[in-house]
Amino acid sequence: MTALHLQRRGAKVTLIDRWEPGHARAASTDYNRVIRAISGRDEFYTRWARDSRARWLELQAETGQNLMYECGALILATGGHCDWEDATSETFDKVGVPYYRFTPDEVRARFPQFKVDEISYALFEPQAGLLMAHRCVITTVELFKREGGVVKRGTVTTDASERPMLDGRPLEADVIVISTGAWMAEMFPRTIKPISAIMGINVLYTSTPDGSDQFDMERMPCWIDHGQGSFGIPSSEGSGVKAAVVIPNTPIDINNDERLIERQSLNKTRQYIRHRLPGLIGERVVDSKFNQVILTPDTHFIVDWHPEHSNVLLAGGCSGHLFKHGPAFGDFTAGVAMRDYGTADRFKIAGRRKLSPKESPSGR
């Protein structure tokens, strides 16, 4: 998205990727991602998500590709742990985001797929939904090339001073934007690694029941279940129901580990399904993905110039909630790269601190 917006601003842009765009190691390579505005008390990300929603729909109309499905998002608020959800209601009211607040009985009536015995209430955001993530990446790259951008294969590393190198030689450009996801920590051990952690997330896709459309996106929303450390997406385009249980501090060697799910995650996900989605008990896992996420202490993104190399702009720090913001993030980062304006304080490398779940825009 940054490359596309730089191209549209009149820059001559070359996009260098270590592997084929959309490759299986990328955090954005999975079939789908949730897009929702819920960000606790953080109005900034709430507005960005709404802006990006409109931009995704525009890109969908422009390219003729099915990039987004508005099946809604259900946010389950567990009793005694509702600070993030409570704050979201207030933010939605300020920003003007359409939503409903459901009692447990209303959730059962509207979305019988969910067992909500311990839930205090739920927020339903009808204009949320899912993005077909892999298709979004490929479509954006093709649009970038159509508009004159160049895509090259290559491995960019850094030297002892963290200067970007390509094939053993310094990378030459007026501006170099580094947006390498979890690999940013490895590339910038002094600048990015101290303010980041890399976590692996196991994702399972479970078959829907024979002859039933109850778990399809036409009948079921995406959901976020912080009380259970989980989130999920209904079956879309035949994928099966996606469920992820986030196991804190799951380490990953991003260069050497196989992208295979762990037995611990399989067991936890099945346990979660028994608890929250009883209609899927006994259904078989039909697919899986293993993604890596780079987390900053405050879960804010990174868009800032390298402290020693004035033409190197670092962009990322996805913290598990960047993909949906892609169009707004890419446009903003392109403007910073062209020095049309400075970056936001929240995106700067310095001054990072751990936020409580109540403060965090991601609820973590």
From TrEMBL:
Its EC number is 1.5.3.1. Residues 2-334 form the FAD dependent oxidoreductase domain. Its cofactor is FAD. It is an enzyme of class 1 (oxidoreductase). The keyword Oxidoreductase applies. Keywords: FAD, Flavoprotein, Oxidoreductase. InterPro entries: FAD-dep_OxRdtase, FAD/NAD-bd_sf, MTOX. GO terms for molecular function: flavin adenine dinucleotide binding; sarcosine oxidase activity. This is Sarcosine oxidase. The lineage of its organism: Bacteria, Pseudomonadati, Pseudomonadota, Alphaproteobacteria, Rhodobacterales.
